[in-house]
């Protein structure tokens, strides 16, 4: 499975899981929500999101009404990568 993900999508299982979750929520998810959905620590989510942001596959957006929170969503490039384009 891991090798298939690397070959087909050029990614790892944790990154694929995160991008798959975001695909279900076009408006994005807060970091805390991602952590909850993926059942991993906030630190794990932050590390994966940092990598994906640097590759422009996801973006962080301010959360209206909460200056401390950030929302993460797929970029167009992230959608294309996820779809195997």
Core attributes:
alpha+beta; 20% strand; Arc Repressor Mutant, subunit A; 85 residues; 3-stranded antiparallel beta sheet; globular; 55% helix
In short:
This protein is 55% helix and 20% strand. With 85 residues, the chain is α+β, with helices and mostly antiparallel strands.
Q: CATH superfamily membership, which one?
A: Winged helix-like DNA-binding domain superfamily/Winged helix DNA-binding domain
Give the overall pLDDT as a whole number.
88
Number of helices: 5
One letter per element, helices H and strands E, the order comes to HHEHHEEH
Provide the spatial order of strands within the biggest beta sheet.
1-3-2
Strand content: 15-25%
| Name of the top-level CATH class | Mainly Alpha
Instruction: Give the number of domains.
Output: 1
Q: How would you describe this protein?
A:
55% of the residues lie in helices and 20% in strands. With 85 residues, the protein is an alpha+beta fold. Strands 1-3-2 form a three-stranded antiparallel beta sheet. A hairpin with a 2-residue loop joins strand 2 and strand 3 (66-74). Helix 3 packs across helix 4 (42-54). The model has no long low-confidence stretch (mean pLDDT 88).
List the helices and strands and how they pair.
Elements: H1 2-9, H2 13-23, E1 29-30, H3 31-38, H4 42-54, E2 58-63, E3 66-74, H5 76-82
Antiparallel strand pairs: 1-3, 2-3
